[in-house]
Design a protein that fits this description.
322 residues; two-stranded antiparallel sheet; 11 helices; 6 strands; 13% strand; extended
């Protein structure tokens, strides 16, 4: 009855109801075709807005909850595919959205990792990480990705789990280092192995199924480990908040006083770049680095200096900050 009244009112104002229905139908088909990507992007946007600190217990608990929900969804989806499980009557009306829920959870986790890793190291590698996330989103909508099925989901799951543990373990340990990373890697591998055991325990040929499912996430874990030891992964949970060059730095009770030259053409400047040196001047590099509570670590600042006496060769000097 309400729809009939709306049609009468719309046509009285000169509208064509048939064209409106056609337009709405096309929009609905478009949303249904790309609903997975929409759910992925929604999860990404949700975490972008709500994330606080990398060591905030509420955020860490939320991400752990996302991973727990992903684990449950992967197990139930696999059991449903094998005909070993079906949604109970109370869950059946909502189970058809399980794929959308999976995309939302992956989007939420990847958004957190993108934000935290970008803050930890703003360079070309951060943009490569973003390109990998965007490429995964696009590839996930292609027919080729559908044939991967569970294996592709396990790759994303392994990446999400390891990325989370890479900064969760240092937050608890209060430091970072190769040993801490190896603990994170071992914990992720154990969790993935436990999940694989649950997924293949009802298979007739467990060894074959385990090999097929374990190979993609295994390659992923090895690749991430290689990138870490090549120093291509930013040093989370540390993050560089500010860095600048100054003529003077003075510590005060309420913070630091930074001295730099004011120039008529540089009203937006907040530091001495380029640094114009006069006799007796000293160059100061002021750095503000975020670290979780109770975190201890040594940070090295590497200076690259051009020496005109040696034909412009670079000399390196390291300053350690406790």
């Amino acid at each position: 009855r309400c729809l009939a009244k709306a049609r009468v009112l719309y046509e009285r104002r000169g509208g064509n109801w048939g064209e409106l229905e056609t337009s709405l139908s096309r929009s609905r088909e478009l949303l249904q075709r790309h609903q997975s990507a929409l759910c992925f992007a929604t999860g990404f946007l949700f975490d972008t807005i709500t994330l606080d600190r990398i060591d905030a217990w509420l955020d860490l608990a939320t991400q752990a909850g996302y991973l727990a929900a992903l684990t449950a969804l992967l197990i139930l989806q696999r059991r449903e595919e094998r005909g070993l499980w079906g949604p109970p009557p109370a869950l059946a009306p909502y189970w058809r959205f399980n794929g959308d829920a999976l995309h939302f959870l992956f989007g939420g986790l990847l958004s957190a990792y993108f934000i935290f890793y970008t803050k930890s190291g703003v360079n070309a590698r951060s943009f490569l990480f973003f390109a990998a996330v965007a490429g995964q989103l696009i590839y996930n909508e292609l027919p080729e990705a559908r044939r991967w099925g569970l294996r592709l989901r396990l790759v994303l799951y392994s990446f999400s789990l390891l990325s989370f543990l890479i900064y969760l373990v240092p937050v608890f340990a209060g430091r970072i280092g190769d040993g801490i990373f190896c603990v994170s890697l071992a914990a992720a591998a154990l969790c993935v192995c436990a999940l694989l055991y649950v997924l293949v325990r009802d298979e007739t040929d467990r060894e074959k199924a385990a090999r097929e499912l374990a190979l993609p996430p295994g390659i992923l874990l090895i690749a991430v480990a290689a990138l870490y030891f090549l120093r291509w992964i930013p040093p989370v949970p540390l993050s560089l908040q500010f860095i600048g060059i100054y003529h003077g730095v003075e510590r005060r009770d309420d913070g630091y006083a930074l001295s730099f030259e004011r120039r008529p053409w540089g009203f937006l400047r907040s530091q001495d770049r380029p640094f114009y040196r006069r006799p007796g001047d000293r160059l100061y590099c002021f750095v503000r680095i975020f670290a979780p509570r109770r975190f201890t670590h040594e940070i090295s600042l590497h200076w690259l200096l051009k020496d005109p006496k040696t034909g412009g060769e670079l000399m390196e000097r390291t300053v350690l900050i406790a």
